[in-house]
Design a protein that fits this description.
Layout lengths: L3 E8 L11 E7 L6 H11 L4 H19 L5 E4 L5 E10 L4 H14 L20 E9 H10 L2 E10 L44 E4 L2
Parallel strand pairs: 1-6, 5-7
Antiparallel strand pairs: 1-2, 3-4, 4-5
């Protein structure tokens, strides 16, 4: 059975990083990116479908997911047992506060004295141009636990060094790799604090967990 690879990264705080200590932390090593063609071949080997037929279905799923989230829906992909694998949903972030409104109305008043200066934000001030739309995704907790239960891990004897500041919630870092740029460092969301994809709340990374 293939093994999941991981390696150690070394964190060396610089002299201006008060309260940070030298440490090592684990990081998953990603070998390849599996695309539609690869999925098509693997699925075809387990079913009676031809690889090109499966590729067409996988491509259609991606298009349909995009259509659904643009209709304010969230899409959940599950396995045959009904275990949620991933949920994709629209997210929006944006805000306006009293200080912004004071600055904006003051500047507008300077150009046009008929504009009133206000120091209190109103709901109508949260206009579409202040919003940022993205897509978020959550991984089913049960699906992830099944992966953790059945995976076989192999340590890669390679240590990369970072000078990034470790994140407080994970004990890891958001690294700036100094070597081996072929892999992308990860910083998983804490599964004990699941996100709520139904809210589409702003401010999060979009990578989270949900019950499933």
């Amino acid at each position: 059975m293939a093994k999941n690879k991981w390696r150690a990264r070394e964190f060396k705080p610089t002299s201006n990083m008060q309260g940070r200590t030298h440490s090592f932390y684990a990081e998953a090593v990603i070998d390849n990116e599996i695309e539609n063609r690869d999925l098509g071949a693997k699925i075809a080997a387990r079913t009676g479908f031809k690889p090109y037929e499966v590729q067409a279905v996988v491509a259609a799923i991606a298009d349909i997911v995009l259509e659904e989230v643009m209709e304010s829906n969230r899409v959940t992909l599950s396995n045959e047992q009904g275990t949620k694998m991933v949920t994709i949903y629209p997210k929006v972030s944006g805000s306006v506060n009293d200080e912004q409104i004071l600055q904006e109305t003051t500047a507008a008043h300077a150009q046009d004295p008929s504009v009133d200066i206000r120091n209190v934000a109103q709901e109508s001030d949260l206009t579409p141009d202040r919003l940022t739309w993205t897509l978020g995704a959550t991984i089913g907790i049960k699906f992830s636990k099944e992966f953790a239960m059945h995976k076989q891990a192999q340590k890669v004897k390679f240590v990369a060094t970072d000078t990034a500041i470790p994140s407080d919630d994970e004990g890891g870092t958001t690294p700036t790799p100094t070597s081996d740029p072929g892999t992308t460092p990860t910083n998983p969301t804490n599964p004990d604090t699941p996100s709520d994809p139904g809210t589409g709340g702003g401010g999060s990374t979009g990578d989270g967990w949900e019950e499933g």
